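Course assignment 3, question 2. Fill in each field.
Student: A.L.
Task: Predict the tertiary structure for the chain below.
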Amino acid sequence: MHHHHHRERPDHDYADDVITVQGVQPHHKTSYLETMMHLFKGNIGTGCYAMGDAFKNGGLLFGTIVTLLLGFVCVHCQHVLINCANLMQDRCRRERYEKRHMTRNNSGVLGPPPPEPHEPPPDFADTVGLCFRYGPQATCHWAATMRRTVNVFICVTQLGFCCIYFVFISSNFKQIADRYGLVLDVRLIMALLLVPVVLTSIITKLKFLSYCSLAANVLMTIGIGITFYYALKDPLPPVAERRLIGSPEQLPLFFGTAIFAFEGIALVLPLQNEMKYPADFSKPFGVLNLGMVFIVSLFSTFGFVGYLRWGDAVEGTMTLNLPDGELLAESVKLMISTGVLLGFALQFFVAIMIMWPMVGCRWTYASRHPVKAEMMFRVVMVLITFVIAECVPKLSLFISLIGAFCSSALALIIPPIIELIVEFSGVSSRTPYARGLLVLKNGCILLIALVGFGTGTYESVSKIIQEF
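Answer field:
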């Protein structure tokens, strides 16, 4: 049972509260502030340190405006997803209720209704599947495929994060090792990292992972603070020395990196479902809006200041720009790398929770030795992310690729599509005028998303090929 229970919570970083699944303590529903902390934990990761690189590609003016705009659109899409999930949950309840009454009336005996089964709220993939299932005739037979597609995208995104984490940690460690005269190849450092990564990735209990997550959070926060301190401690160069708008072939890379940084959409439904008062999550001054205003401002400021300070020398992770040989700067590199190392297992957990049930049921060995089989599967998956990370030369291009390809599909393409399907499935009470506006708005979001998706994926892939 508890495997399924985790799958309902497709994202990772609020593991503290899922401890209860293992039956350790009575279920603890999160308060407003706790949920806010989880939202930060889920959104502020390596993407934050990549924002300097994003601004290098986008330019100061374009970068700021588009980061704010993308942030706004992402949050809007998260609200759309929440509304669709709530509608689908009501729809399922109503259907069950009708079915129950039908069966009672047909049998002619009006006994007491059977007890209502406790239905876990739909997650991202379930919501998409249900929207297609209850949609117009044309979409019904796409339901299962779409549900699977969303799960595949979530897995690819999560495993992409894991590959990025490998490159991120090893490039930071390489700088520290070089500084102390240990000149090791970055690939060798990655191989050494396999040991701690495999050890943390075979932890199956979220209880232990939640401690990792808490530690990672603290380290990340201190790291951001000290990076800001280094960027601002000397007078900044004048804005005129930096580009205000990037060249056309750089803008798609900007899009990929920025959308990668806002990858929190798989988190919204689980966070809302965990709350004591779920309505507090999506109301106008709720957790989602206030939290994301802070996150989007942080990202824009961080990217702006990072690019203004270091210019074209800004790295795919700004930690690499911190001066060599200063104790404080070295400690930041260590802290953030350790924070990311601890975060690896949580990102990995999400993908495994979705993939393992699919693999486990088709593998005969797994039915006899479930624990051994799952360990083997986890180790193989870590090795796959390791091999991909070994092959990718540049962190910034990889981040841009994952952002443009997966994150934009999840965050910007799926929500408008399901909203349109729900609108045209005949349950809507909108006037034709309001419906026209809705179609126009979603058309615009899809247009932005598709242009970014196409050009961003194309540019990152062609640049990666050039690097080889």
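Instructor remarks: The two ends are 46 Å apart (CA to CA). The longest helix spans residues 60-107.
Grade: pending
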